[in-house]
Design goal:
Elements (H helix, E strand, L loop, with lengths): L2 H13 L3 H12 L4 H7 L1 H4 L4 H30 L5 H9 L3 H8 L9 H7 L3 H9 L5 H6 L11 H17 L2 H14 L1 E6 L16 E4 L5 H12 L3 E6 L2 H12 L5 H50 L9 E5 L6 E6 L5 E7 L8 H14 L4 E5 L4 H9 L8 E5 L4 H5 L2 H6 L5 H14 L1 H5 L18 H19 L1 E2 L5 H5 L5 H15 L16 H7 L3 E2 L17 H11 L3 H6 L1 H5 L13 H12 L29 E10 L2 E5 L6 E4 L20 E10 L4 E5 L5
Parallel strand pairs: 4-7, 7-8, 9-10, 13-15
Antiparallel strand pairs: 1-2, 1-3, 4-5, 5-6, 11-12, 11-14, 12-13, 14-15
Helix pairs in contact: 1-2, 1-5, 2-5, 8-11, 9-11, 11-15, 12-14, 12-15, 13-15, 14-15, 15-22
């Protein structure tokens, strides 16, 4: 069985996905197909696996490939040393996990200078073997023959100490001992944290962990990451250990053969092996595993939040006046057209210390009239509620909705190279206000320009494995962009970057071609873009839209490779393609089974029928207007027992945060989310969800607000 077949078999075993579909998915991944493309357009080959399942196969494939790469390196190393035996080779080839593989290799790994290697160089290995056998009665007499001052073994005690060092290393390298102690660590070890002496006051934010102990494998991700962060910052000491007597009992059960004088020497070596070698090694291994598990949980929470934020309902193509509020520096106003182009910008100063409220209201009113503004976007940062209150006092000639917009990350965008490229003649305040307005119109198109880590959702995103985080976020953004689809003639370079098969270089080429040649007239015209070949076209074509194309399918999610079958449907009905797409009664006459074949099966045909019914459908929800309680503007207005409207701004493993319009998000602890046990907050709330919350407590000094959903009814 070749390595890929072995990997496919293991993935099948771990996921319970049919082996044929696993094999097909691996082939598609190896050929360069993206996860969104495979999930959407290769359902016949994968058995309609979804993006989560395909991503799992991809990640397991990478993991097992790393295992096979390491296995090959170890086999080569042992062979080169001339130490390979049939039994060892069989064990190495059968090792199912990296830890088992490394345990087998440990005795053969090139060693640095250790206490054991020093003792061996002094000729004490034969004595170690004698002691380990535990067959003699007078160990001191046998040890005396190994005394040799010239070899730095001046006394019997030195000979015995060196022999014990060798035995300790043998025990450390014993695969049975490591496997059993690893199992003990994983099942029984407790994680404990204590403050670093003298750092108690400085590390006050970690006070909850000054005297903390719990079973390691049951510790939730946020506590693991918090303790490890406190340790990294120098405020906590963290230990992970099982009951020492249980660990020693395992070693003694494996290696002790009696309780005589010679066995006492072995027992001392076993205790040394545990404390000096095995426990530190296995603790590091368990730490890494706990960290990886905690990272995965935190990254999943973060990625879920980012997905919900990116897929927030868009207001759509409206003329928008956006305000980036401020007190001392004033409020920056920008006016945008339906495409998000900047038409006008200026400052107003309605708040202290200037207090030009009337002048500011008149200016907003005149700009709304002059630019036919349909909506006002107000950043929810400093002075946000005060600005919203001001705007709601203005009487406009037409209905103009005023919406608070989460401005997290707008400042990051405004100072970025991309913002400077888009608006070279404007400062950061203008760019930030533009970002606020654009994210009201289309959150996805605007927020792909910002590093997801700067968006302000999730937990401990700066503490987790950054490579793993980057992959998860890239997957999430790509999934969102391709789920919605991208209009080829208006999409920014950043949005195009996340289209399946495109990437940064081709995105730049597409924009360059569009600027030089004008709007794309069809999907097929993509093939004229420099360096965009057949493979990239195959991956991308179904996810782009060309609204002005003569072919109506170019503005749908139907892939060009399926155009022929739809044209045949229209021909069989004796109508044009345009007539078929417009007429739902005609679509009902189609029997998909008649058109199923080797390349296009029923899953794809069902997708085609859904797409014909709603061409280019947007999976995002319809925009829903939200308004805070007008009587509450800051934390001083809050009282315990109040029931207020709020909007979920962040979801973590321990609860969710809600904006209630007081410049400080309140925490809804997981126990206050619902009148039932909740394991995962994402089970009951979504990002941007509108909720009613009850104020449980207000700590004005620490600016902490505790809220409840379950008590708000």
């Amino acid at each position: 069985m070749n390595p890929i077949s072995q990997i496919a078999a293991r993935i099948t075993s771990e996921t319970a996905i049919d082996k044929q579909f696993v094999n097909n998915t691996i082939e598609l991944i190896k050929s360069g197909a993206t996860v969104p493309f495979i999930a959407r357009y290769r359902k016949e080959q994968t058995g309609s696996l979804d993006e989560v399942q395909i991503t799992t196969i991809r990640d397991l494939l990478l993991r097992f490939e790393e295992l096979e790469k390491r296995r090959a390196a170890i086999l080569s190393s042992v062979e080169e040393q001339g130490l390979m035996t049939p039994e060892l080779k069989e064990a190495l080839l059968a090792a199912p996990a990296m830890a088992v593989l490394e345990d087998l290799y440990l005795p053969y790994r090139p060693k640095r200078k250790t206490r054991a290697t020093i003792a061996i160089s002094r000729g004490l290995e034969p004595l170690a073997k004698i002691i380990m056998a535990q067959k003699i009665t007078d160990v001191a007499i046998r040890a005396k023959s190994f005394v040799n001052p010239e070899m730095e073994v001046p006394a019997v005690t030195d000979a015995l100490a060196g022999a014990r060092d060798i035995i300790a290393e043998w025990v450390n390298e014993d695969t049975r001992a490591r496997a059993r102690l690893r199992r003990l660590m994983y099942q029984e070890a407790v994680i404990s944290s204590r403050p670093v002496k003298g750092k108690e006051e400085e590390g006050e934010k970690y006070q909850a962990y000054f005297e903390w102990t719990e079973q390691a494998r049951r510790a939730p991700s946020h506590r693991i990451l918090a303790m490890f962060r406190g340790e990294k910052e120098g405020y906590l000491r963290v230990k992970i250990t099982p009951e020492e007597e249980n660990a020693l009992a395992i070693l003694e059960g494996l290696f002790l053969k009696g309780n005589g004088e010679i066995s006492i020497q072995v027992k001392q070596a076993l205790h040394d092996a545990w404390k000096r070698l095995l426990h530190p090694s296995l603790e590091t291994e368990l730490r890494n595993d706990l960290k990886t598990t905690a990272d995965k949980t935190a990254i999943r929470v973060f990625a879920d939040n980012v997905r919900q934020l990116l897929l927030a309902p868009p207001l759509g193509q409206k003329r928008i006046l956006a305000i980036d509020p401020g007190f001392r520096t004033g409020c920056k106003i920008v006016c945008l057209d339906e495409e998000g182009r900047l038409l006008h910008n200026e400052n107003i100063y309605p708040h202290p210390p200037v207090n030009e409220k009337g002048k500011a209201m008149n200016k907003i009113q005149s700009l709304v009239s002059a630019y036919d503004i349909e909506a006002i976007a107000i950043g929810n940062g400093t002075a946000g509620r005060e600005t919203e209150h001001l705007v709601r006092k203005i009487r406009f000639d037409n209905d103009v909705m005023a919406v608070m917009v989460n401005e997290s990350g707008a400042s990051v965008y405004s100072a970025s190279d991309l913002a400077r490229e888009e608006f070279p003649d404007y400062d950061v305040t203008v760019r930030g206000a533009v970002s606020i307005g654009r994210r009201l119109a289309d959150p996805l198109s605007e927020m792909v320009k910002i590093n997801p880590k700067a968006i302000g959702v999730g937990q401990y995103q700066h503490d987790v494995d950054q490579k793993m985080l980057r992959q998860a976020l890239d997957d999430t953004v790509m999934s969102c962009v391709n789920a919605v689809g991208v209009e080829l003639n208006t999409a920014s370079k950043e949005l195009l970057t996340y289209v399946s098969g495109i990437g940064p270089a081709l995105a730049a080429s597409i924009v360059q071609y569009r600027n030089a040649s004008g709007a794309f007239k069809s999907r097929q015209e993509l093939m004229q873009v420099a360096r965009l070949g057949a493979k990239a076209f195959e991956q991308a074509a179904g996810f782009i839209r060309v609204a002005q194309s003569e072919n109506p399918l170019d503005s749908s999610a139907v892939h060009p490779e399926s155009y022929a079958v739809i044209e045949k449907m229209a021909k069989d009905l004796g109508v044009t393609l345009h007539d078929l797409i417009k007429n739902k009664e005609l679509q009902k006459q189609i029997e998909p089974e008649k058109y199923a074949g080797e390349k296009i099966g029923l899953p794809t045909l069902r997708d085609i029928m859904q797409e014909l019914a709603r061409p280019g459908r947007d999976p995002r929800k319809t925009f829903d207007f939200f308004e805070f309680d007008k009587s509450v503007k800051n934390i001083d207005d809050l009282r315990e027992g109040m029931v207020l409207p709020g909007i979920i701004t962040n979801i973590t493993a321990f609860g969710a945060f809600a904006d209630i319009g007081v410049h400080q998000d309140g925490l809804i602890h997981i126990s206050e989310l619902a009148n039932r046990f909740v394991r995962d907050p994402a089970e009951v709330v979504n990002l941007n969800q509108k909720v009613n919350v009850k104020v449980l407590s207000v700590d004005k000094t620490r600016k902490r607000v505790s809220l409840s959903i379950k008590q708000a009814d």
